[in-house]
Structures are given as structure tokens and as C-alpha cells.
Amino acid sequence: MKRTVGIIGLGLLGGSLAKGLALHPDYEVIGYARRSHIGAQAMADGVVKAAYTEARAVVEQADILVFALPPDTNARLFEELAPYIQPRTLITDVSSTKVNFARTVKQYIPMGAHFVSIHPMAGSEKGGYAMAQADLFKGCTWIVLTDESEPSWSEAGAQELVAMGEYLGGRVEQIAMKDHDGFMATVSHMPHTVAAMIATLAGGDAHGALRLRLAAGGFRDITRVAGGNPAMWREIITSNRQEVVRALSQLEEQILHIKNLLLTSDDDTLETYLKIAKTIRDDFSHL
């Protein structure tokens, strides 16, 4: 018997998850989208069996319930919908930050339901259902979070989500819930603010238009994520505020180190620094 996957939010991640799982022989997908035309398009595409503009209908039917909206929105919706979640349900989310949502789930989760969080490290600076792809997760890191001390966490649920990630072509990693937000601040949220800073520094004054005409691929690469949805990224960054501040402080230390090497003409140490950075980047490229 097929298990019903209910997806709350059919944007880039939720829509891509729906498109990918629509091809899975053991799953049937239903979805919630606030705008009716998005749900109608998902049904027309054969991505979901049913689509609703009221999330409660999805919650009441789901065996696996995926919250695929921004972190604080997920938390607010979960609190509202918790009374309608069935005891058998495996709850997960694809949020970029976990602390606030996990706190809300642990407070309101019904007895008998399970919560295992995931974070597919996939996406684009362009969002929305129109950009969703069935193969979005192929080759991307699919993080399944462990939280054995929590009664609602489930090893069986975690393994089902591991298998789901593998089916979608993801490279599965498992890390502790308590470590997630700090890691994401360093590899995702702080770098997003840096991309915004560089874009602003290069293009935000009277000479900006000329500088941007002179810029090439390196500038495009390092600022790509600055093209993301500002409202969504505000919610992501502020929901991980303390960890992002910590990561920015660490970045400040690196900036001061480089400035000191330049001011003291310590060019050999600068080259060593750049070699180490290249090795780190090359290792990442091989993943």
C-alpha cells in the first residue's frame, strides 16, 4: 500500500520534492499551496494526486508530512496544524535553520507522531514552483538530522528519509540536530551576507554601473546567491541570528589576518594562505 506524502508548500524545494517522489512506486503525493493556480498546475503536471489551499486537508491524510516553507512560517503553521496531525505521522521539514521549528514541534507534536528533520542542500537563487525540478536533489547533499535524546525522534523514520534522499539521487549525510544551525551559518547563511556585501560594495555607488560592466565570471560566481529572494533570506538569516553573528566574527578575524599580511608585506605567508584555501576548495569540488 502506498504511503501518502503531504507537502506543505510547493515552491522550489517542495515542488521539486513532489516532482521527484511522484515517480516513486511506494509514494503518493498531495500538496498545499496558498495560491490555487500553483496546486492546479501541480495536478495538471501529474505531480500531486490532490492539491489544497487549506493545509489541514493535507495534514489529516499524510503518512509523511513535509514542511517546505521558510523556517518561521513552518513553525507558525505547525502550531496551528498540530491538533490535526495523526499519531502515525512522520513529520519532517526542509528548513535551512532548525532551532525555532524544532522547538515548536517538540512543544506541540501529538503523542505517537515522530519528527525527523532533513535539509536537502539544493536550490537556486530563483524560486517558486515554476523552477522546481524532479532531479533537483541529484548529486546534492541530503542531510538527515539525528536527535536520539528526543522521544519523538525515530530511527525507522530517519532510515526512511535516508532512503528517500538516495532515491532522489542525493548524497546522504547524518549529523546531530544540535550542530546543524552552526554548520549552516558557516557554509550558507554567512556566505549569503558576504555575497550581498560584495554586490553592494562593487555596484552600490556612483561608479557601480561601470564596475559591473567590467566584472566577469569570478564576480558572477561569488555574488550569485545575492540574487535570491530577499524576504526569504531575511527570514533564514534572522532565524539563525546568533550563529550568523558568530560566523561573521570568525570572518572578521580572517579579514584582519589578510590585511595584516598585506600591510606587513608578508607575501610568502599570503601565498601559503591562498594555497591552503585552494586545497580546501579543490577538495569540495571533488565531492
TrEMBL record:
One of its GO terms (molecular function) is NAD+ binding. InterPro entries: 6-PGluconate_DH-like_C_sf, NAD(P)-bd_dom_sf, PDH_C, PDH_N, Preph/Arog_dehydrog, Prephen_DH. Belongs to the prephenate/arogenate dehydrogenase family. Keywords: Oxidoreductase. Residues 3-287 form the Prephenate/arogenate dehydrogenase domain. Pathway: Amino-acid biosynthesis. This is Arogenate dehydrogenase. GO terms for biological process: tyrosine biosynthetic process. It comes from Veillonella criceti. It holds the Pfam family PDH_N. The gene is tyrC. Its EC number is 1.3.1.43.
